[in-house]
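Sample 3 of the quickstart, ligand iron/sulfur cluster:
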Amino acid sequence: MTAKEQGSDVDPISRFLDPERPLDCDEGRRLGCAGFCCCLVVRLKQGEADPGKPDATGPRCVEKHPGTGRCIYQNVEDSRCTVYAQRPEVCGSYDCRNDPLLTIVLEEGFRSIGQLVARHTQRIKFGIEP
Ligand code: SF4
Ligand code: SF4
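Result:
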């Protein structure tokens, strides 16, 4: 329990967002997350294998489902990762709680990195909260 939580009732969202606590995706799911981060660009590191195509060379991003824009390794039924044990490093280290870009993707969809950066810059310029 963090100092903030001691002796007070902390609502679940505040607890989830508390930077003093490690990210808890199970808690996030209970709050409504459907694996939202799996619609972001998943870039593989130099030399890192694609979980479903270990011998592939070429594009260094995990493929997206053409219809949903979600990662091809996300289970459409329960939105969980089907390659969890072999998932890319970036998936294991990602923390949605400090990523304003995810908000833009969820609100507007993902079309290109250029669109994402432009919208992010615009929001900062006009002081729009993520
Ligand atoms: S990191 Fe991804 S799966 Fe975990 S709570 Fe955030 S959006 Fe959901
Ligand atoms: S590899 Fe797994 S955790 Fe990573 S984006 Fe795809 S479904 Fe999500």
